[in-house]
UniProtKB/TrEMBL annotation:
Residues 9-21 have a biased composition (Basic and acidic residues). The lineage of its organism: Eukaryota, Sar, Alveolata, Ciliophora, Intramacronucleata. It comes from the Eukaryota. Keywords: Coiled coil. This is Uncharacterized protein. Residues 1-21 are annotated as: Disordered. Residues 59-90 form a coiled coil.
Amino acid sequence: NKLKKYREKQKSIEERNLSKLQEQDKRKNMNLFRYLDQKENFKREKMFYKKFTDKILSKHQMISQIAQKEKERENVIQELRRKNEQVIKNDGSLLVTNYFDSYLELQTQNPKTK
């Protein structure tokens, strides 16, 4: 009789241990799934922000290139105006027309970007 009670007790202890282990496994699996899901979400967010920042950077680059070209054009125009004023002071009307022609040629080569 004692032996029977002992076996039942052992069996119930084993069942409890087994159920505890199964519960632990379930928790581990849930944590693993949660971790993998978070990792996947993080990857998606990272890709989204990378695309977003790439777009911003490319637009910024385009804007800075346009600004650089505009600045170069403005510098050339200023240089032509300076030369034109210098020529007017020297009273060389033929040279004035030459500089004005080169200015017009420059305008046709580099039309203002919108």
